[in-house]
């Protein structure tokens, strides 16, 4: 992991300052983990449930296994589609531009394809670079 692990890996609770982070469930996929996390600020009755998708199989500055990445992305896409009232997804990697930028582009393109739109990769990346500077360094 190239960033701090900010969630309990196994079921249980950890505290980060005033925030209580509880791992409720953790399901192992072929190359990824899907963790249900409950967040609560201490002394607050309100919980926030988060579905955390973790894909450790993608090497930093490397190339992922394409079928594996596509299966992972489709799993995330289906979750986002099934629960449309959720806010926007948060996507990150160590720097926030390479792997996460590629993933966001792939996810967006899959969403468009499901709607019958066939986007071009170069145009999609150029458009998304307007919103995430230096995203996807090589094209």
From TrEMBL:
UniProt keyword Phosphoprotein present: no
Tyrosine specific protein phosphatases domain ranges (all copies): 70-139
Keywords: Hydrolase, Protein phosphatase, Receptor
EC numbers for this chain: 3.1.3.48
Top-rank taxon: Eukaryota
Source species: Nothobranchius furzeri (Turquoise killifish)
Domain (Tyrosine-protein phosphatase): residue spans on this chain: 1-139
Record has Transferase as a keyword: no
Protein name: protein-tyrosine-phosphatase
CDD domains per record: PTPc
InterPro entries: Prot-tyrosine_phosphatase-like, Protein-Tyr_Phosphatase, PTP_cat, Tyr_Pase_AS, Tyr_Pase_cat, Tyr_Pase_dom
Any one GO molecular-function label of the UniProt entry: protein tyrosine phosphatase activity
Pfam families named in the record: Y_phosphatase (PF00102)
């Amino acid at each position: 992991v190239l960033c701090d692990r900010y969630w309990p890996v196994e079921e249980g609770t950890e505290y980060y300052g005033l925030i209580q982070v509880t791992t409720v469930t953790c399901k192992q996929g072929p190359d990824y983990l899907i963790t249900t996390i409950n967040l609560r600020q201490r002394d607050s009755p309100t919980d926030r449930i988060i579905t955390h998708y973790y894909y450790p199989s993608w090497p930093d500055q490397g190339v992922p296994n394409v079928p594996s990445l596509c299966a992972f992305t489709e799993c995330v896409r289906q979750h986002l589609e099934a629960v449309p009232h959720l806010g926007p997804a948060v996507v990150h990697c160590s720097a926030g531009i390479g792997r996460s930028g590629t993933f966001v582009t792939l996810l967006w393109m899959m969403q468009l394809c499901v709607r019958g739109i066939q986007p071009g990769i170069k145009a999609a990346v150029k458009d998304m670079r307007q919103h995430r500077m230096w995203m996807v360094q090589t094209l």
